[in-house]
Amino acid sequence: xxxxxxxxxxxxxxxxDYHDNEWGKPVFDDETLFEFLILxxxxxxxxxxxxxKRRENFRQAFDHFDVQKVADYTxxxxxxxxxxxxxxxxxxxxxxxISNAKLFIEIQNKYGSFSKFIWRxxxxxxxxxxxxxxxxxxxxxxxxxxxxxxxxxxGFKFFGSTTIYAFLQAIGIVNDHTVNCFCxxx
Length: 186
Fold this sequence. Notes:
The protein has helices spanning 13-21, 30-43, 48-53, 55-61, 67-71, 75-82, 91-111, 114-119, 142-154, 161-170, and strands spanning 127-128, 174-175. By secondary structure, the chain is an all-alpha fold. 32% of the residues are buried. Helix 2 crosses helix 10 (161-170). Strands 1-2 form a two-stranded parallel sheet. The protein has a single domain, classed as Endonuclease III, domain 1 (Orthogonal Bundle). The mean pLDDT is 96. It has ten helices and two strands, in the order ααααααααβααβ.
């Protein structure tokens, strides 16, 4: 019998693997959190599948999401990334990734880790939703509104409430697997 998955999962194996093994599972590791932060910021205005298909290319282009290396990128590196047709070539998003990396490090220094900073919003406990249908799953919530507002105040770019909500879903702060999905409880 075929596993029941969330409504958004297509037959694309990349999507299936991402859904089954990553999406909605709690992430506490700063390296992975930084990777998702970068990927979500590049996703703004595009489909997540577009990003997933280029994820390995992003990993290579952005030094395996080493936050310190990304924070130290120069104008020459920006120009190099703009020539890389295996990633999304958007100057604003590339420059935001560098700026956001510097802010990510500031948060690490202030809170001990980015994980401690982001998970404190939910007292280190994932929010488990009980949605049955696509129309019930929100694009934003008061939590994503607050985090987006706080990150904007710090200086983060390309992180509106919708992008933040997708980030929270990706890193498991919010488990929005629908109740009929085999991943809902695990």
